[in-house]
Amino acid sequence: MPRRSPVGRLRRQLRLAQHETMMFRQLMDGMLSQLPLRGMFKLIVRAVVEGLGYDRAGIFLLANDRKTLEHSMGIDEKGRFEWGKYPFPVSKKRGFSIFSDIANGHLDFFFTNNIRKKLDRARVSCGVTCNANVPLRVGKDRIIGVLAVDNLFTQRRLKKRNIHSLQYFATQAGMAIESHRMHVTLRHDVKELRRLSRVKDDFLSVVSHELRTPLTSIIGYLKLLLQKAVGPMSEDQQDMIETAHRNAVRLFQIVNNLLDLSRFQAGFQDMQKGSVDPVEVLSNAVQTLRTQAAVRGLILETEPAPSVEPIEADAPKLESVLVNLLSNAVKYTPEGGRIKVACIGTCVGGKDGVEFTVSDTGVGIPRKHLKKIFDAFYQVENHMTRNVGGTGLGLAIAKKIVEAHDGRISVESEPGKGSTFKVFLPRKGPVTGKPTDPGKAAKGSGE
Ligand SMILES: Nc1ncnc2c1ncn2[C@@H]1O[C@H](COP(=O)(O)OP(=O)(O)OP(=O)(O)O)[C@@H](O)[C@H]1O
Ligand SMILES: [Mg+2]
Fold first, then answer.
1. d(CA 90, CA 98)
2. pLDDT tens, residue by residue, 196-240
3. Least crowded by CB within 10 Å, which of 63, 300, 383, 384?
4. Is 122 exposed, middle or buried (0-12, 13-18, 19+ CB in 10 A)?
5. DSSP state for residue 335 in the 8-state scheme
6. Furthest CA-CA distance within the chain
């Protein structure tokens, strides 16, 4: 036998590597171009025939119940595609059939250069002489089907090294098929989630709207009763009406929050911006919470601010952000604690603006919750949150408002020691007043 030169061997290896690179590139192109699954199958069988030099190739995928191997795509010696031809039964029993053994992981590969001996009449009558089958793998442990190749009269005998490249290719193809399937499922799920989210938003917005009108009237009448406009009341009656009024106002706030959130989500929440004195807005917010803080025995102090220049903002919305931060500080700080607020002119990320700070000596927030507290309806479970009311909407809305000013809200906290919330607003926000890309701001919040 003539000895093969090392140069010849290297050349062959190089040729093989080039073929493989071409095939993988084709596979990647198929995945990236979001071909339909059938297109992907065609690409795979064609790559096997053209890239690895077989006459025919076929992909057989395991059905969901793993009881049959379905012929998903084939290519014959004339380059014609065919599919859906032969479903093969599969059994977990070893030795049931070669396909079955490969699909169940009992055999890593199978090949023959004399198919006549293997009594495969259908193939023999088509002129097949050599046949090889390898599993389509996803990772090490999962098999999703079988890749089969045939050679006709080309006299090219199969060798073990051919099988190795075939196995390697089949693993890449298996992963490509699987990621394609996952991509399709994900796209479907995302569509469905978007639809559900729209239904939820519509529902919230309709319900909140329908609740507001009757609630306004209830609150109005309760107020009249409290003002004794319809005559005197006993002390008990007064107590009851006061409780009813307090709860109706609370319900009204929740409905308003829901409505605000659904407006933001639908992109309808416009900011009415004008020149705003930050110190004045902060002092209004402090004023709103002063009595509540005093009732709970908390010290509420404002750090003296050097003069801060006005900013362009929606004053009532900005005030509602600060009121929510302050009301959280009041709710989540045990009696005797201290709350500090401050407002300074500063520069963040090259933008000139104002930073508001609300810090407390309260229960604090564990690190793992810090980012999530800005999500709607998210509340941290602890002994205080169980006792104080709330729906978990305040920070979600605050974040949307801050983002609509092109600003940034963040928190630092240590359980048992307290929390510090910071809101930075640039002196001039975006022109539209619409919320910015939520992903962009989410990174900055809760860090
Ligand atoms: N200063 C704080 N100290 C400790 N925990 C806080 C503080 N601020 C917020 N949290 C936690 O973050 C959660 C979300 O706050 P958020 O203001 O969104 O909702 P809420 O205060 O529970 O209800 P709502 O504001 O809708 O009335 C709170 O439930 C609480 O667990
Ligand atoms: Mg709150």
1. 10
2. 888 887 887 787 778 888 899 999 999 999 998 888 899 999 999
3. 383
4. exposed
5. T
6. 120
Compute the Cα dihedral for 156, 158, 159, 161 and give only its sign. positive
Closest ligand 1 atom to 394 CA: 25
β-partners of residue 346 are 353
- The total of other beta-carbon atoms located within 10 Å of residue 398's CB is 24
Which residue stretches of the chain have pLDDT < 70?
Answer: 1-4, 20, 23-24, 27-28, 30-34, 117-125, 153-155, 385-387, 429-447
| Residue to substitute in 260, 328, 369 for testing ligand 1 pocket (most ligand atoms within 8 angstroms of CB) | 328
- Kindly tell me the burial class for residue 290, based on how many C-beta atoms sit within 10 Å of its own C-beta (0-12, 13-18, 19 or more): middle
User: Residue 169 Cα, ligand 2 centroid: separation in angstroms?
Assistant: 56
Q: Give the DSSP H/E element, type plus range, for residue 74.
A: strand 68-75
Best probe residue, ligand 1, of 372, 373, 400 (max atoms within 8 Å of C-beta): 373
* Inter-helix orientation angle 394-404/315-331, to 10°: 150
Phi and psi at 344, nearest 5°, equal -135, 155
pLDDT one-digit tens code per residue, 52-110:
888 999 999 999 888 999 888 999 888 899 887 778 899 999 999 999 999 999 999 99
Beta strands, E only, 139-259: 142-151
Query: 95 forms bridges with which residues in the sheet?
Result: none
Q: Is 132 helix (H, G, I), strand (E, B) or coil?
A: strand
CB 358 within 8 A of CB 435: no
Burial of 61 (0-12, 13-18, 19+ CB in 10 A): buried
- Contact by Cβ (8 Å): 37, 181: yes
Query: Which protein residues have their CB within 5 A of the ion that is ligand 2?
Result: 324, 328, 394
CA distance 420 to 410: 8
Q: State the Cα–Cα distance between residues 30 and 174, nearest whole angstrom.
A: 13
Looking at the DSSP assignment, which residues form a beta bridge with residue 151? 130
Does any ligand 1 atom lie closer than 6 A to the CB of residue 365? yes
363 Cβ neighbours under 8 A, 6+ residues apart: 332, 333, 334, 382, 383, 384, 415, 416
Read off the tokens for 275.
Answer: 């020149």
How many residues are there in the chain?
447
List helix spans (H) across 267-314.
Answer: 278-295
Q: How close is the Cα of 327 to the center of ligand 2, in Å?
A: 6
**Ligand 2: distance of its center to the CA of 392 in Å?**
6
Alpha-carbon distance values, 65 to 59, 83, 85, 173, 327 (Å): 18, 20, 19, 21, 56
Distance 179 CA to ligand 1 centre (A): 40
